[in-house]
Amino acid sequence: MSGISPIIYLIISLLQFIILLRFICQAMNVNYYNPVTQSIVKLSGYILKPFEVLSFKLNSFILFLILYLFTLAKFYLPMLATFESFTVTSFMVIAFSYLIKDLANIFFYLIIISAIKSWFNVFVSHPIFSLIDELCEPLYVFVRSALPPISGIDFSPVVILFALQLIERFFIPQIMNLGYAI
Q1: Residue 3: which pLDDT band, with cuts at 50, 70 and 90?
Q2: What is the mean pLDDT of the chain?
Q3: Tell me: the pLDDT tens digits for 138-171?
Q4: Cβ neighbours of 86 (radius 10 Å)
Q5: Are 136 and 161 in contact (CB under 8 A)?
Q6: 76 and 133 share a domain?
Q7: Residue 118 and residue 133: Cα distance in Å, rounded?
Q8: For 53-93, what is each residue's pLDDT tens digit?
Q9: Which of 15, 40, 39 is nearest to 27 (CA)?
Q10: What is the predicted pLDDT for the residue at 122?
Q11: Sign of the dihedral through C-alpha 54, 60, 62, 67
């Protein structure tokens, strides 16, 4: 394999990350007037332009499918370097597990940043922190409905982080094992 492959992998990963951010922003219905959200939409717009030309309306489902295609490409490139071969079904299942892992990782870091930000009152007005709050708040509300704050302490970030770790430790390996078994 040539030395250009890691560069191509990096480019595909960057494109997938930008589309992943757009998918998360669109799925969580964040405020479009946030400058960070506008930047994400503008950057991803360049990547998604060929799909718009094909008359696809970029709703969350279509965006998820496009994100899945980029994840397939991201998974396929290292597979070419190792000369491994998978059936199409197992290849698609393993790529799906990588996509779930990427989503879990993004939310893990968003919640960590949100929790640390809540300890400090310095950068509260920055647009990126308001975007992080908008992305995390639907998850917090869901957990708070089942577990209200106890003695004024909100445990929803801890519960969500625990759930994300369960997904990453147990759910994703099961999907990968399924993919390898097929």
Answers
A1: low
A2: 86
A3: 999 999 898 887 887 888 899 999 999 999 999 9
A4: 17
A5: no
A6: no
A7: 10
A8: 776 677 888 889 889 998 888 887 777 666 667 778 888 89
A9: 40
A10: 66
A11: positive
Which of 41, 69, 85 is the C-terminal boundary of a domain? Answer: 85
Same-domain check for residues 171 and 113:
yes
The 10 Å Cβ neighbour count of residue 175 is: 17
Q: Which domain holds residue 131?
A: 86-182
Annotate the chain with three-state secondary structure. CCCCHHHHHHHHHHHHHHHHHHHHHHHCCCCCCCHHHHHHHHHHHHHHHHHHHCCCCCCHHHHHHHHHHHHHHHHHHHHHHHCCCCCHHHHHHHHHHHHHHHHHHHHHHHHHHHHHHHHCCCCCCCHHHHHHHHHHHHHHHHHHHHCCCECCECCHHHHHHHHHHHHHHHHHHHHHHHHHHC
Angle at which helices 127-146 and 35-53 cross, to 10°:
90
Model pTM?
A: 0.86
* Rounded CA separation 64/138 (Å): 19
